[in-house]
Amino acid sequence: NLDADSVWNQYIEISVNEWDNAAAVTLNLRTVTYDPDCLAVPWAMKVCNDNFGETGWKGVEQTMLQGGNIVASLAKMNDYYLRVMDEEDRLYTMCHELGHGLGLAHSDENFENKDLGDCMDYTHKHENNMHPGSSNFKALK
Q1: What is the C-alpha to C-alpha distance for residues 140 and 137, in angstroms, rounded to an integer?
Q2: Cα–Cα 20 to 30 A to 96, which of 34, 106, 119, 134?
Q3: Dihedral angle sign, alpha carbons of residues 26, 131, 9, 45
Q4: How buried is 18 (Cβ within 10 angstroms: 0-12 exposed, 13-18 middle, 19+ buried)?
């Protein structure tokens, strides 16, 4: 549900293809009619973009659960911060939010320690953590 001309489109394609390499998941990317309200869709992971303003987050994900199972996932990419985000930061953010949509927690929440080399790791060096890692794939059930 990204705008047709959104810069995020290339990053969602890369990230979906990479997460699809996990044995535990099968992802299919499809385009739907633009939804300015960015409402969740049952049994789908939806990604939207908009200028959500100075929120402090570049991307955020909301997972809806029912009986302990994910029934919908909604990721929002904040265009407000695009002007300060480089390509590595955008790919890291997309990969990170899709990982949450698959039910993954953070690999590590310390920005100051050594990078783990996966996009679920908090980091200041996005170029080191732009893709899912083997530990992320193992954590998917």
Answers
A1: 5
A2: 34
A3: positive
A4: buried
What confidence score (pLDDT) does residue 116 get?
A: 94
Residues 94 and 8: beta-carbon distance below 8 Å: yes
CA distance 73 to 65: 9
Taking alpha carbons only, the member of 2, 101, 92 closest to residue 45 is: 101
Determine the pLDDT at residue 34. 83
Identity of the amino acid at 32: V
Interatomic CA distance for residues 34 and 139, integer angstroms: 32
CB 130 within 8 A of CB 91: yes
Q: Which residue has the tokens 């929002």?
A: 76
Token pair listed for 69: 């199972």
3-state helix/strand/coil string of the chain: CCCCCCCHHHHHHHHHHHHCCCCCCCCCCCCCCCCCCCCCCCCCEEEEEECCCCCCCCEEEEEEEECCEEEEEEEEEEHHHHHHCCHHHHHHHHHHHHHHHCCCCCCECCCCCCCCCCCCECCCCHHHCCCCCHHHHHHCC
